[in-house]
Amino acid sequence: MAQTEYIVIRAQEDGVNVIGLTRGNDTKFHHTEKLDKGEVMIAQFTEHTSAMKIRGKAEIHSAHGVVESEPKK
Ligand code: TRP
């Protein structure tokens, strides 16, 4: 069951990747979504998704506040 909480990811550059990782014994990538600058993805943690990895420069809004990911230098 999906949680009621949503995570909002706003890309601040082209080519930001939002990667969903599986829940359970092994933690693997199961989905990659590519966002271009200004694009927003609204996502939940589900029975299939236990973690998300954000690659690239983005703003991540959640119940924990806003954090910024930074591009690799
Ligand atoms: N099929 C995935 C799921 O139900 C879709 C998904 C939910 C997802 N949250 C995500 C994919 C976060 C990537 C990142 O779990």
TrEMBL record:
Which GO molecular function annotations are given, in alphabetical order? RNA binding
Please indicate if the UniProt record lists Transcription regulation as a keyword: yes
Q: One Pfam family, please name it.
A: TrpBP
Q: How does it assemble?
A: Oligomer of 11 identical subunits arranged in doughnut-like structure.
Which superkingdom, per the lineage? Bacteria
Q: Where is the Tryptophan RNA-binding attenuator protein domain?
A: 3-70
InterPro entries the record matches: MtrB, Trp_RNA-bd_attenuator-like_dom, Trp_RNA-bd_attenuator_dom
Q: What is this protein called?
A: Transcription attenuation protein MtrB
Which SUPFAM superfamilies does the entry mention?
A: TRAP-like
Alphabetical GO biological process terms: DNA-templated transcription termination; regulation of DNA-templated transcription
Q: Which residues form a coiled coil?
A: none
Q: Which family does it belong to?
A: Belongs to the MtrB family.
